[in-house]
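Propose amino acids for all 461 sites.
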């Protein structure tokens, strides 16, 4: 066999990911927050990109430019240099004076709240030092995270002194703060109440694990008390606060979701509205656009042309993202129309493949378009992935797993709490309704709904 080097011309097809295509895919995958952050960074990098101004602001600027010449000196003399309040205009006492302070809120942290109470407690210098160290080691749930031996060592104190200061802090609000475990936390709260039944204290001290596992009969047998009375005591214990510090946790942090689109029902028809706040509109800066036409410097022209192409591609990608999300929601609305009329029980099985075939796109595109995207509907706010669920066989065809979960939840809500239904009994009831699923599947869906087992749901009064 003869080997050699030859030059051949061969034609082949390859899929190449251009930077522009990567950018379009990335934009589609972004949620609304990530998209806005990306747009802000691109506006900082590209001088030709700018946010579209609302029409009202543009009209206000035009009206201001059409007004007669303003005497700025006379206007400045009417305002003080601190609040910029107009001295010449009378202040309406009935009208509330708004300022920035009126719109800002501040909530004390748990440690600040405890330090305030410590400051008004009659303690000597050493006791205050111990108390301050204890408070600094109380976690966000209100529990003490450090051993008393360490406090004794670091503060050069005796165990009696540390325990005495800890008792004082455990008397602070919120009740139960400074406890070292759940048992101590509940005991502090119980002992704060008047006329406490000693049995309640006894049950907290020795039977917390049994309460968690709903072993009411075992507690009643060992204490020789009626089961109904033990049930009442357990119900009371469950009303106590297991995390006394959580009222102060996450204070000042507002968590909210901006929907990417809204579905509104207008005269019996459902209309899809894409939210411009979630994907703002962009424009090409008119100054640089005109400069590109008139500029004779080749380097400046090349720079502006490059930035212009980049800006146009970003604008095109964002518009394409909007259209893709619109088409996906439109397809979901087509498949899940009964859900918007009758609720989650009417949710039908739906896959990414079905939506992809319906709108002529790839499954991966649908996955990116639904990941982290939300839609506001007449039935509430939902992530787009909520509408996709697997199907289970039934007498009337396939039924979605979400509908099955809704049916399980309703069955358990309607059961007799003294005789809760087992998973097998729930499976039998579902079978009678046309949904044939196994006991194991019922248990799986019940766990996903955070519903305890029948033994845990049983009540004795």
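Proposal:
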């Amino acid at each position: 066999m003869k080997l050699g080097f030859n030059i051949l011309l061969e034609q082949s097809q390859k899929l190449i990911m251009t930077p522009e295509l990567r950018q379009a895919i990335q934009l589609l995958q972004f949620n609304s927050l990530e998209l806005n952050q990306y747009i802000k960074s691109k506006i900082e990098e590209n001088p030709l990109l700018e946010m579209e101004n609302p029409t009202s602001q543009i009209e206000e600027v035009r009206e201001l430019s059409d007004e007669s010449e303003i005497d700025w000196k006379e206007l400045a003399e009417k305002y003080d240099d601190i609040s910029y309040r107009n001295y010449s205009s009378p202040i309406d006492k009935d009208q509330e004076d708004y300022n920035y302070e009126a719109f800002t809120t501040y909530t004390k942290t748990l440690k600040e709240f405890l330090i305030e109470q410590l400051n008004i407690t009659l303690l000597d210098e050493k006791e205050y030092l111990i108390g301050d160290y204890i408070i600094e080691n109380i976690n966000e749930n209100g529990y003490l995270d450090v051993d008393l031996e360490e406090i004794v060592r670091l503060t050069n104190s005796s165990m009696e002194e540390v325990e005495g200061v800890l008792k004082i802090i455990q008397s602070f609000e919120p009740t139960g703060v400074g406890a070292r475990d759940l048992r101590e936390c509940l005991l502090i709260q119980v002992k704060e109440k008047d006329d406490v039944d000693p049995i309640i204290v006894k049950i907290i001290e020795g039977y917390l694990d049994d309460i968690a596992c709903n072993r009411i009969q075992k507690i009643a047998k060992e204490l020789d008390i009626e089961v109904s009375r033990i049930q009442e005591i357990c119900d009371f214990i469950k009303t106590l606060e297991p995390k006394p510090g959580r009222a102060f946790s996450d204070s000042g942090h507002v968590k909210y979701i901006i929907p990417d689109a809204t579905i509104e029902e207008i005269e019996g028809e459902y209309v899809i509205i894409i939210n411009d706040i979630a994907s703002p509109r962009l424009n090409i800066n008119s100054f640089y656009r005109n400069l590109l036409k008139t500029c004779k410097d080749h380097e400046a022209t090349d720079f502006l042309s490059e930035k212009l192409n980049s800006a146009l591609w970003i604008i095109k990608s964002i518009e394409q993202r909007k259209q893709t999300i619109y088409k996906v929601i439109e397809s979901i609305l087509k498949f899940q129309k009964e859900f918007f009329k009758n609720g989650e029980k009417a949710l039908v099985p739906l896959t990414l493949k079905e939506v992809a075939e319906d709108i002529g796109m790839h499954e991966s595109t649908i996955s990116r378009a639904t990941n982290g995207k939300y839609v506001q509907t007449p039935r509430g706010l939902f992530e787009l992935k909520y509408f996709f669920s697997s199907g289970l066989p039934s007498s009337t065809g396939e039924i979605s797993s979400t509908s099955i979960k809704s049916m399980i939840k309703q069955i358990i809500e309607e059961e007799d709490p003294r005789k809760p239904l087992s998973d097998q009994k729930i499976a039998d009831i579902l079978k009678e309704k046309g949904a044939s699923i196994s006991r194991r599947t019922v248990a799986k869906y019940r766990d996903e709904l955070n519903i305890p087992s029948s033994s845990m749901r049983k009540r004795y009064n």
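The first strand starts at residue 49 and ends at 51. The chain has three domains: 110-238, 261-387, 391-457.
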